Amino acid sequence: xxxxxxxxxVEDDPxxxxxxxxxxxxxxxTLYASDGNExxxxxxxxxxxxxLLDLMLPTMDGFAVLETIRKRTDTLKNVPILVVSNxxxxxxxxxxxxxxxxxxxxxxEVSIEEIVAKIQTMLVH
Length: 125
What we know:
5-stranded parallel sheet, 5 helices, globular
């Protein structure tokens, strides 16, 4: 077992990925997936402590990734998942929460500092 804390960032926006990368540098080992299939492969391989998940992704959307993780039968099904999406409608938030999202933030309404603070809180619990 390793002491490395992995954060899996599932985001297809290169600007946000780059911003998060600089923010997490030196604090956490950060993995980046650009689509749902890549996210699930990294999830199995690295067993991240927290997942930062966008919903609008190519090949497999974030809802499907969320559902797949929560249907697992091992302890990884309980990994905190922070959804950060442009989908701000109540129905999208409710769907994500119903599927097991730990928390939900709308990109247009949140700062990078708020995202980092949420992740740090999730890592403590």
